[in-house]
Amino acid sequence: MPIGRRAANEIVTKEVEGEIGYIFPEANKQVGLDLWPSSRTAMEKTLHEFNAMIAKFTCAGFVNDELRGSVIARMTPVNKTVKAGSPFTLNYKKGMGNGEQEIGSLKGVEGGVVDVLEMKFFGAGLEKVNQQGEEEITFEEAAEIKA
Length: 147
What we know:
Distance between the termini: 39 Å
Strand content: 35-45%
Structural class: mainly beta
């Protein structure tokens, strides 16, 4: 596909940053990757808030759909060296409540603040949403997450 063109069902996010931490309870030795928009203001960082936009996209002919907030994915494998260019898996699951993620916060990450994804549909107010699915990330060098 030519640069600058996207598939009809593809949403491309703005730049994100994140931190790895333990999923509660810590004894289960599972880790998660907490992701949020890099464009947060200094005040948002101080208050551990995630109001910056992650993505803006078109749905059903409208261009005002926006995704804001932060999200956590379970990250695997742990305690195993992953070769350069080989993937770690990120797994996102919805929680029990409406618009909640399975993993709400990580120990020691951003003050333990609960992550929330919100979406503005058709230019209206923000509503809680969740993300489901799996994706892979790779690093240029070998890496290991020790848990």
